Amino acid sequence: MRNKILFTVALFGILAGCVAAYLFGSVKPPQRPVFEPATNPYSQGIYAEGIIESDQTSGENINIYPEVPGTVKQILVAEGQEVRKGQALLLIDDSVQRAAVEQQQSQAQAAWTLLEELQAQPRKENLDVALAQAQAAKASLKTAQDSLVKQQRAYELDSRSISKDALDNAANAAASAAANLEVAQKQYELIRAGAWSYDIRNQQKQASALDKAYASSSALLAKYTLRAPRDAVVMAIGAAPGSFVSAQGTYDTYTQGATPVIVLGSPRAYLNLRCYVDEILVPRLPDPSKIKAQMTVRGTNIRLPLQFVRVQPMVSPKIELSDERQERVDVRVLPVIFRIEKPANLKLYPGQLVDVYIGE
Fold first, then answer.
1. Architecture of the CATH domain 122-194
2. Using CA atoms, how far apart are residues 53 and 266, in angstroms rounded to an integer?
3. Of 177, 111, 120, the residue nearest 144 (C-alpha)
4. Tens digits of per-residue pLDDT, 251-262?
């Protein structure tokens, strides 16, 4: 009985081993890829990685940086919105600068008003007062002279009728009245002559300097409003109301680095494709007049022809795709720019990575 049990258990073990060997040894057919990998359509084609960007005659996208630092007060546009040249995009808090502009404007206006006052001299009221003072001085002189004459005659008739001191005082009073009349007449002539030409020119210079300071402050105040430098599409907004921005851009929480405040792209029906050819493959790059290229959109089976635009004739370290600027980069690449017509049945966006083959 015991031998039968052992035989049965061994038999089941053999059968289980055979079944397991069959199951684990069978080869399952591989699943078909969701999309075909990029293939070289040219017999002598070279491969390059590419990045899509907006259609620009030079450079890449339009990165907007403020020229003045401050806190974002209001964002006037949205991502994907088309904007016109000169349209306001973003407002930075300008309360301090606006107060400075208003102060300098008031100072300039006060300086010009003072200049008009100098140019309007003599004032009729001041001239009338000076004339009245001159006439009063003339009358005082007449009174002093008459008193002197009377005392001199009395002294001549009888030297004992008036003292010598009284006669001297009368003479001094007449001389003093004559001097006062001369001063009053000269003061009248000075007022009638108006402001001195040197004072007018000096005030003109001061008013002009304050005007220029006001214009400079006004120009700086305009910098607190970021405007579109050309017709474009808003591709990305890196700031939010309340965040701080400067000439270096704004702080990006995800990349932990500085990024443009606003990125603008071209509203045209074309996109640019900037591909980076490895310096080892540069000698195999065809003549520009014979270049043909094709790009493959990653994740799809779509292949699009490319139109050659230009070569950026400078080999540089390959950091554009990773932005690892602290890393030592041994690979150097040559940028080649192509143009893509936007397909109607496919969405392409600037910043998207694609595979490129270049042939002739």
1. Orthogonal Bundle (1.10)
2. 9
3. 177
4. 887 777 888 999
